[in-house]
Specification:
Number of helices: 18
Strand content: 15-25%
Family: Belongs to the CTP synthase family.
Helix content: 25-40%
Function: Catalyzes the ATP-dependent amination of UTP to CTP with either L-glutamine or ammonia as the source of nitrogen. Regulates intracellular CTP levels through interactions with the four ribonucleotide triphosphates.
Structural class: alpha/beta
CATH topology of the largest domain: Rossmann fold
Largest sheet: 9 strands, mixed
Pfam families: CTP_synth_N, GATase
Radius of gyration: 25 Å
Subunit structure: Homotetramer.
Bound molecules: glutamine
Shape: globular
CATH architecture of the largest domain: 3-Layer(aba) Sandwich
Number of strands: 21
GO cellular component, one term: cytoophidium
CATH class of the largest domain: Alpha Beta
Number of domains: 2
Length: 547
């Protein structure tokens, strides 16, 4: 068995430079050559996982099958390579220190002074190698943050050591840094990139490849400068420039020769790259023949990264219908303040309320759901978007006037959504929700069954509340259908409203399983419904897969 190779991706100049998509593209370039590829995202913050971070500042929490609450870059790895990641693919300072301190308390280091080098760095290396175990060909390790950040130092030190321990031919350092283009002169400015390379060198890491992140493809002069000051051949300088379709990036880097360069540098034995399927997906993205307008009604509207998987799942579904999905973010707090603003929704072909937490903006979301139901605009509700659809239905159809979720009103007379029983004594917030992939039984003769065409599906969850069993009968009597339940029949997983064109909501998060070439059925159904309703079809017809 050949030795596992490690590709380390660092970032420079600014954060959010697109390291995640570059790392995903590198993985894609390797996997189309028949290599088994795994990923690690290192997050140097002290939180143990992303679950307690505000999605407004940090972006979406991506949930893995095993219930890891991880960084959103794991979502990109999954979408680009059509793989399943797990909690071990996301390493944080919090996890590393937790482990080292627990060992120290157990007495594992008895007599020693426990230090960042070697104890912390050893633990980082152990966690990285854990992912490479069992014959993985390549592990792509993305180091979050920017070269020079104080909290990133132990991680950079650990990967510096890995070059020594694993050997030159088994390790590769890729540095991704911003190269701004000046509007006035049209010049690409490489100085900041040069400084960040120097910062890495100071730590003892000489990049093998530099990826300039720029709005347009860099010119010859910029490439020459980057190579000269980065001490690299020009063939080791690549450019990741702005693209309309993010899934095109691996093809762009491949065209620039990245695949060939990495294969030679790491002395990999590979097959001919097989890009045909991926090319087909990208070309479908580029040649859509219709547009569908979707409103996502939520709280964090300024930063679409808070719902990145939702957005991508909509785009994947659109591509399958040869449609581009035009997404508008509707701030439900504004609707709460001025309820008549909800009428803006008349402009949309579909309405989606995504996952969410807490009181703020919740009443606005309920108004959006009411609008969708009363005007029969296709509706997809995700997690909180399902729970609030129940609240809306209970209030306005079942006549339970002050129905609510106890998450938004603890005193509600009709707590139609309530804490899961096993959550009642849980106080700690980290990793304590109902999390990860769980089986769901889909009822026959329902919209959900028409979409999934399977009786058992597995989907990822992240919630503390559920449909209160005390209200099942009332809700069902008024026409709401529970089309998916947990295997023990105790938990509502999918709801739908039969008389409507498309009104479906899930307790789980289907977006985490959507892929550019494999749209998730509920999203696909939703986008198809929005398109069909728009052109005046009488009723919803199941979509056919074209990719
Ligand atoms: N806040 C709700 C709950 O905890 C919904 C969670 C979500 O939308 N992910 O159950």
């Amino acid at each position: 068995m050949a030795r596992t190779k490690y590709v380390f991706v660092t970032g420079g100049v600014v954060s959010s430079v697109g390291k995640g998509t570059v790392a995903s593209s590198v993985g894609k370039i390797l996997s189309v050559r028949g290599l088994t590829t795994q990923f690690i995202k290192i997050d140097p913050y002290v939180n143990v996982d992303a679950g307690t971070l505000n999605p407004y500042s940090h972006g979406e929490v991506f949930v893995t099958d095993d219930g890891g609450e991880t960084d959103l870059d794991l979502g990109w790895y999954e979408r680009f390579l059509d793989i399943r990641t797990s909690r071990i693919n996301n390493i944080t300072t919090g996890q590393v220190y937790n482990e080292v301190i627990a060992r120290e308390r157990r007495g594992d280091y008895l007599g020693q002074c426990v230090q960042i080098v070697p104890h912390v760095t050893d633990e980082i290396k152990r966690r990285i190698r854990l992912v490479g175990r069992g014959g993985v060909d390549v592990v792509v390790v993305e180091v979050g943050g920017t070269a020079g950040d104080i909290e990133g130092l132990p991680f950079l030190e650990a990967i510096r050591q890995m070059r020594l321990e694993e050997g030159y031919e088994n390790t590769l350092f890729i540095h991704v840094a911003l190269v701004p283009k000046l509007k006035a002169t049209g010049e690409f400015k490489t100085k900041a990139l040069q400084h960040s390379v120097n910062e890495l060198r100071r730590i003892g890491i000489q990049p093998d490849i530099i990826v300039a992140r720029s709005e347009a493809n860099i010119d010859k002069e910029a490439r020459r400068k980057i190579a000269l000051f980065g001490t690299l051949p020009e063939e080791a300088v690549f450019c990741s420039y702005d693209v309309d379709c993010i899934y095109e990036l691996p093809l762009i880097l491949e065209e620039q020769g990245m695949g060939r360069y990495i294969v030679e540098r790491l002395r990999l034995t590979t097959q001919e790259p097989g890009w045909s399927r991926w090319r087909k997906v990208v070309s479908l993205y580029k040649k859509t023949r219709q547009t569908v307008k979707i409103a996502i009604c939520g709280k964090y509207t300024q930063l679409s990264d808070a719902y990145v998987s939702v957005k991508e799942a909509l785009l994947h579904a659109g591509v399958n219908m040869e449609a581009s999905v035009d997404i508008t973010w509707i701030d439900t707090e504004a609707i709460e303040e001025e309820p008549e603003k909800v009428n803006i929704l008349s402009q949309f072909d579909g309405i989606l309320v995504p996952g969410g937490f807490g009181k703020r903006g919740a009443e606005g979301k309920i108004l959006c759901i009411k609008y969708a139901r009363e005007n029969d605009i296709p509706y997809l509700g995700i997690c909180f978007g399902m729970q609030l659809a129940i609240v809306e239905f209970a209030r306005n159809v079942c006549g339970l006037e002050d129905a609510a979720s106890t998450e938004i009103n603890q005193e509600a007379k009709h707590p139609v959504i309530d804490l899961l029983p096993e959550q009642r004594n849980v106080d700690a917030k980290g990793g304590t929700m109902r999390l990860g992939s769980l089986p769901i039984y889909v009822k026959r003769d329902t919209l959900a069954y028409r979409l999934y065409r399977q009786e058992v599906i597995n989907q990822r969850h992240r919630h503390r509340y559920e449909v209160n069993p005390d209200y099942w009968e009332t809700l069902q009597k008024h026409g709401l259908v529970f089309s998916g339940l947990s295997p023990d029949g105790r938990r509502v997983e999918i709801i739908e409203l039969p008389g409507k064109f498309y009104f479906l909501a899930t307790q789980y998060h289907p977006e985490f399983l959507s892929r550019p070439n494999k749209p998730e059925p509920t999203y696909l159904g939703f986008v198809k419904a929005a398109l069909d309703k728009k052109i005046g079809l009488e009723s919803f017809q199941e979509p056919q897969l074209v990719i």
